[in-house]
Amino acid sequence: MLEQRFFDLELLKKPSLEKLAYFKGITVPHRNLKEVLNELKANILEPADTSIFFVFGVTGIGKSTLIKRLQKILLENLLEDLLSNPGQIGVARVEASSSSQGKFNHLDYYIQVLEALNEVLINYKVDYGISETESDGSKSLVPAVIKNTSTLRRAMEKVFINRKLRVFIVDEAQHLFATAGGHQLLNQMNWIKSIANFTKTIHILVGTYELLNCSTISGQIGRRSQDIHIARYHQLLQEDVIEYSTVIQTLQRHLPLLEEPQLETHCEYLLQYSIGCVGMLKSWLVRALRISLEENATTLTLKHLKKAEFSASRRKQILQEAEAGEKRLQDDESDSPTSLQKQQNTNPKSQSQGVGNRKSKRDLVGGN
Amino acid sequence: MVLDKNNTDELWDLEPPSVPERSHLFHLKPIGMGTANVESLTSYIARLAQAHCITVGRLVCAEIAPSLKEGYVFNPKNSDMSKVYNSIFTKSLNGKCSTAAVIVQVLEKLTQRNDLHFLTMLSWADVISEKYLLHPQKAWCPFCYQEWFEAKQVVYEPLIWALHVVQICPRHHCRLHTQCPHCYKKLPLLPGNYRSGYCSKCQSWLGLFPEPETFKNSQFLSEEELELQLKVLDNVGELLAIAPDILFYPPSNNIKNVISVYINQLTKGDLSEFAKLLGLSPHSLNKWYRGKAIPGLNKLLEICFYLQTPLVDFLMATKVSAASNDIPIQPQTPVKRSTQTFRSNPSLLEEVEKVLLAALEESPPRSLYKVVKDLKNITRSSISRYFPNLCCQISERYAASRKPNHQKIRPVLLSVVNNGEYPPPSVAVIAKRIGIRSKTLYKEFPDLCEKISEQYSCYIKLRQLERIEKIKQEVRQAVLKLHNKGIKPHSRYVSELLSKPGLMRDKNAIAALHEVRCELGYE
Ligand SMILES: [Zn+2]
Ligand SMILES: [Zn+2]
């Protein structure tokens, strides 16, 4: 009589806010994210030459989940070091901010990084003028009253080194390259590379497909970087549909409702309307759950899903972003031998492109 | 109802592992620890500031000074930098004064290191006098600076340069410089604008190329002087190198004891004869002999040179027992090595391990500091060096006891509430069992503690009722016995029949007596 549920049944007696919080806290692993994670893990934990990773995917694909999971895995691997060295930080992350002028500001970035690493007295950094590279020892100690970019850069590098930072993750990394012109892009690439090389800290730049601009350029200046694509799930790939349906089933098991919803019957609809992004699917279900709870419904039905679905314009925007990015990626990959095998995973998207568009117009009934 | 916890693939846990708090300042490693070239504390502070890209002045005023007790050394509220640096504060930092000890403590807390002590002369605080211990100003070797700079090594100041008895560089054997070759000024030890290797007055680089010309100019030492200085370096260097390894900081009466042994040996107890022999002032010798003062490093070296005893052995001679009076201490043969180290004394190692292991069982747990303090004079750093894991466990256990681990404690409390342990324990008993203070337990788990204490007080009440019932029955039996024998059940007679003599004074017993007497018609 009692069906097996995957959460503490006590939860059903709790207020809606708690139920929502529970469901929001659920993270469902899925193939595409696992693959990316495994690749990063293998590359980071085994000594390799790569010092910069570009990790990109469409909005809502689950980048923040990836970052959190990666941080956890790396910290667990470094735990022994961290316990024996109370000064080590090991792994840190920062979110690059978009600047108002549309141009990336190095000074702000350094300050942000120093803050992320809990550095002391950020406003009082001075240039000791004793450079590791220059031998010009005649400069005097200049207090950085006017905040000086090179002083703060040195301060940041020293923190990386002294805190034995192994991996530094920059979220929304496309903002680092929000500069005009190919030449400046190259400068930014060289800039981040020199920091990574000098401090021996692996940089993981996570962002949107805009990062593809850099990877093209990075190909020109050395092989110390690697591109990793977080792919979405495609309707036309049998294995993608199966994986997505597994994710949906896992998610539905954790919806704290009296009756477990039967969402897998709407798999096609859910996959299509979330653009194949698990992150989007999840936030969609959170909203649907809220609606269902407000109605005091015993379970979550198609009606709730419909009410909570993303607007057509939002979907269109994300789909465009995804397709444009995937196309760019495919074009780039055709002349990059290293990622040929990756291409196989994402290849059929060129076919799905057109079909997907047509379908989204036709199939508004959803499900069944 | 069953949670599928086995299926790890079902969900992803994003909670990062708990990592102990990171050090506030960099956990910068001192240079040359355990060698004669160990870095000085002032040099360490300067390098720490440079690593953080802040001036030494800023580091001291913004990070170190606020951690000092107010009114200590200077008032942090109106501390302007010059005041800090004009005080004796920096001059004696590498020495053995209490300021040095306090600064070491503060810095160790900020960097989470436990070895900064050895960047000073604090290990020898009780056996070497403060007089003439340190150079009043900065003393340095310009050739060392240049060499390090060119080899891209860290430019620093060894502690040995700071000692007053040391006049030459241990590596280049040239006289240490005390004046900037560019502005001819004497330099303070730790100015607010310190940069390692630079003059703080004129900002010039202090390193010099060891060209034959400059080298010769620095070398004013005669053969004899040089030989003496080399001996000084050997002895003092050993002192600095061995400091992290010693277990007991030598106590001040070492000096007194060792001197009296030598006086007995050499001049048959004649103090003034001994003074004459060694060329010492009888007045000072008398003070040392009576334990009223301790000699300066210069005097100690003179004595050791005469007695041909390594300085370390002289200072570390921990116990000179009556028996050791018979040890043939000839002026020509060095005394037997008595330095206490874990290496030299494995049984002590076992003893310490035992204490540490026992500390792990203690409830409530004590802090590592307290545990080590009980190990008399064994230094904390040597213990944590030899038993890093045990020390770590002790600290963690203590920390855990201070910061209750809800995940571990809750089930314990729940099982007490639900499983009906008999007799039900009090909250205090459980707190002791877990190893935390009951006050903390009440604060963190008010609901569960209330239930536990309710159960406990119920039990206590029940026990009381049982006791009262027992007394009543006893009294009743006694009264009936007397009544059946035809004796009037007076409380005196009843009392004689009870198991405990004073029982009849119990108010419950009186009430019971009254009750039965009523029943039997006596009242
Ligand atoms: Zn030298
Ligand atoms: Zn000068």
TrEMBL record, chain B:
<protein>
    <submittedName>
        <fullName>TniQ family protein</fullName>
    </submittedName>
</protein>
<dbReference type="InterPro" id="IPR001387">
    <property type="entry name" value="Cro/C1-type_HTH"/>
</dbReference>
<dbReference type="GO" id="GO:0003677">
    <property type="term" value="F:DNA binding"/>
</dbReference>
<dbReference type="Pfam" id="PF13443">
    <property type="entry name" value="HTH_26"/>
</dbReference>
<dbReference type="InterPro" id="IPR009492">
    <property type="entry name" value="TniQ"/>
</dbReference>
<feature type="domain" description="HTH cro/C1-type">
    <location>
        <begin position="271"/>
        <end position="314"/>
    </location>
</feature>
<dbReference type="InterPro" id="IPR010982">
    <property type="entry name" value="Lambda_DNA-bd_dom_sf"/>
</dbReference>
<dbReference type="Pfam" id="PF06527">
    <property type="entry name" value="TniQ"/>
</dbReference>
